[in-house]
Structures are given as C-alpha cells and as structure tokens.
Amino acid sequence: MMGWLALALLIGATLVGMRANGVRGAMLQACAAALLLGASGYALQGRPGLAAAPAKGAEDRDVIPLTEARHAFYGNFSGEESWLRMSEALTRSGKSEDAVNILQNAVHRYPRSPHLWIGLGNALVDHAHGLTPPAELAYRRAAELSPGYPAPPFFYGLALARSGDRAGAVRLWKQILADAPRDASWRPLVEQGIAVLERSASR
Known about the structure:
It is globular, with a radius of gyration of 17 Å. 73% of the residues lie in helices and 0% in strands. The N and C termini lie far apart (45 Å). By secondary structure, it is an all-alpha fold.
C-alpha cells in the first residue's frame, strides 16, 4: 500500500514541478501521459509488496549523483525524465527491483531511446550493487543507439566506479575528455568525477 501511495505522490510532485518550471500545454500532457504509462508498467510488472533492501556502497554511488549526471548530458526536461525519476525514487527508497521493472517496461515501449537504456543500466547496477552482464548490455545498447555521444561510456565508467573499479573509470573518463570539445557543457562534470576518484585513490 505504501508503494502505491509513494508512486501517486511522486507523480503529483513531478507534474507540479514541471508546471512550476514553465512546462505547459501539449508538453505537460505528454509528460503526464508518460507518467501514467510508467505507473501502468509498475502496476503490471512491479512488486510493491517486496520488502525494501538496504542501500549499499553509498560512497561509490555518490561519486557523481546520477540525476545530476543525466541532466548534464540530456537536460532536465527530456521525454524520458518521468520514467527515470520514478525509477531513481524507488531505488532511493530501497525498492531497486521495482526500479528495474519500470525501466524494463520503458525500454520495451521505447527501444530506441539511449537515455532509457542508460537508466536501465544504472538501475541494474543499483539492484545488483555492482556492474553485471545485463547492465553492460544496457550501456552497450545505448552506445549503439547514439554512436560517438559520450553519455553511454561516461555512465559505463560511473558504473565501474560504483563497482569498485575506480582506476578503470578514470581511464575511460580521461579518454572521453581527450576526444571532447573544450566547450562541451558536460565537460566540468567529467573533470569533477576524475578529481574525486583521484583524490580518494591518494588517501
């Protein structure tokens, strides 16, 4: 019961936040429809009665907050945002399996969205407390759908860091920076991540 209440509150808060930030008319209706689709997927595939699992590895997860990183690469008001916010909220509340279920439903409906495939990879990493073959497949699918765009390898690197392979993440992120334009809007985020990992390695 509490799972459904949390989902209803999340949908309401998301719509209010979008309206407060100037989202109106057809765009707001489209976002509302996506939220309802996500809720439908949760109703069909989710397991709201599943006991919550305590979060682990907070230090690795917090190298760069996932929501902040997503917004740096894809903006704040993409069409996929409602699905991803719901999934991340469920993960934060310990319902990582439900978070995976929502994004599995999302990529089934929108299989050509690299943003959603990255979200699924992130959710799978959270659920397993580390990088797994299904998560690697999700990041690889995102890369295939957006060749040359740095978001998929960046989030794969973040998954490496969250799984304990911080050196691997730094190598990958440095390569991303080497190939990136100097004025890329997301460049400071990647530089910040490298600095955090290198600082922790020197302790």
